[in-house]
Design a protein that fits this description.
Helix content is 36%, strand content 15%. The protein has twelve helices and 13 strands. By secondary structure, the protein is α/β, with parallel strands linked by helices. A seven-stranded mixed sheet has the order 2-8-7-6-5-3-4. The protein has two domains: 120 residues, Aspartate Aminotransferase, domain 1 (Alpha-Beta Complex); 223 residues, Type I PLP-dependent aspartate aminotransferase-like (Major domain) (Aspartate Aminotransferase, domain 2, 3-Layer(aba) Sandwich), CATH 3.40.640. The chain starts with 22 loop residues before the first helix and ends with a helix. Bound molecules: pyridoxal-5'-phosphate.
């Protein structure tokens, strides 16, 4: 049977998303007792105890479907952010909200502009959806080239995705840059700003986009509980936009797209939002420490506003990451992101994990 002929254009040419190797797989393959994963920008701190007990309690209810409208979660988050509940849409990770956006907006022949050196899911999702991706290079400082992205917009452009701060570079665009960009984009084009790492940012000129929603109805913000809130395994993300836009998006999502345990966990995270600053400070301390240590080892370190760090070296990143793997440290080589042969992204771990990474690098480089 010729299955290939059944698929829509774009599917056959798209490679599946390739995540970092799971710890157990590396342990099994290499016979290692201890493996440290610094590859998927997860929070190395586990979920909060209050989140764990809320989920344990909720597990007794999983014979029931979850609330299809995420009513309590929507209400809590709307109060926290001071937005109208109708401005919110939740997804099985912010990944799903992104997928909903592209599916809802783009018809054959139309396109989506994003940065070529950004979150790998953008080209993958666009690839399977009428091959609608239109990638634009970063600027010389590894930042989104917003003027070039605005210039790439044509009559067929439906959506622009701006990742701020950007994965995998950790760089960010300033408030002024982003506002000039919004002013230069036609209002019929939706601008989705992916703020998966929003909470980690400490730069003062980083744009606060929530207040911008009032002036730019074509703006949509994407955020997640996967990173600072340590819920990557439960998959809860959300979009914030104009209520009339969001109400159309709701039509295209699955009825029960955020499961019962995930809704419960996200609500518990909101109830414990006061834990966020401590988490941010601990990440920043380790990020700064890693930047100094990696710099001392001769890496070119790209300044980061996130929970990961991009470094460049003269050696082949593929070989370096393999050598690290054999020492029980998983990091991500960045050739799939088109950032050159020597580029590696290292997620920030706990102090002992970061120290183990630096020690392993010292041994490899010497
Ligand atoms: C820029 C960016 N956006 C979105 C996501 C996905 O987040 P979620 O777990 O909410 O789907 C990630 C995850 O790594 C990311 O780096």
């Amino acid at each position: 049977m010729d299955f290939e002929s059944l698929f829509r254009p774009g599917i056959l040419g798209t490679r599946p998303y390739s995540p970092g190797k799971p710890v157990e797989e590396v342990q099994r393959e290499l016979g290692l007792d201890q493996v440290i994963k610094l590859a998927s920008n997860e929070n190395p701190e586990g979920p909060l105890p209050a989140v764990v007990s809320a989920v344990q309690e909720a597990v007794l209810e999983v014979n029931r479907y979850p609330d299809a409208t995420c009513f309590r979660l929507t209400d809590k988050l709307a109060s926290l952010l001071s937005v109208d509940p109708q401005q919110l849409i939740f997804g099985n990770g912010s990944n799903e909200v992104l997928d909903i956006l592209i599916r809802a907006l783009v018809s054959p022949g139309e396109n989506v502009v994003f940065s070529e050196h950004s979150f790998i899911v953008y080209p993958l999702t666009c690839g399977v959806h009428f091959e609608c991706g239109r990638p634009v290079s970063l600027d010389a400082d590894d930042k989104h080239d917003l003027p070039a992205m605005a210039a790439a917009v044509d009559d067929q452009t439906k959506l622009i995705i701006v990742c701020n701060p950007n994965n995998p570079t950790g760089t960010y665009n300033t408030r002024q840059e982003f506002e000039s960009f919004l002013d230069s984009v036609p209002s019929r084009v939706i601008v989705a700003i992916d703020e998966a790492y929003y909470e980690y940012v400490t730069a003062e000129d980083y744009p606060q986009t929530l207040p911008m929603l009032a002036d730019y109805p074509n703006l949509m913000i994407l955020r997640t509980f996967s990173k600072i809130h340590s819920l990557a395994g439960l998959r809860v993300g959300y979009g914030i936009g104009h209520p009339d836009f969001i109400s159309q998006l709701h039509k295209t999502r699955e009825p029960f797209n955020v499961n019962l345990l995930s809704q419960t966990a996200a609500i518990a995270c909101i109830d414990n939002w006061h834990e966020v600053p401590g988490r941010v400070a601990r990440n920043k301390e380790q990020l700064d420490w890693m930047a100094v240590e990696l710099g001392a080892l001769g890496f070119e370190v790209v300044p980061s506003q996130t929970n990961f760090i991009l470094v460049r070296c003269d050696t082949d990143a593929g070989k370096l990451t393999q050598d690290l793997l054999h020492k029980g440290i998983i990091v991500r080589p960045m050739h799939a992101f088109g950032l050159g042969e020597g580029a590696v992204r290292i997620s920030i771990g706990l102090r002992a994990e970061n120290e183990a990474c630096i020690e392993a690098l010292k041994k490899i480089l010497n």
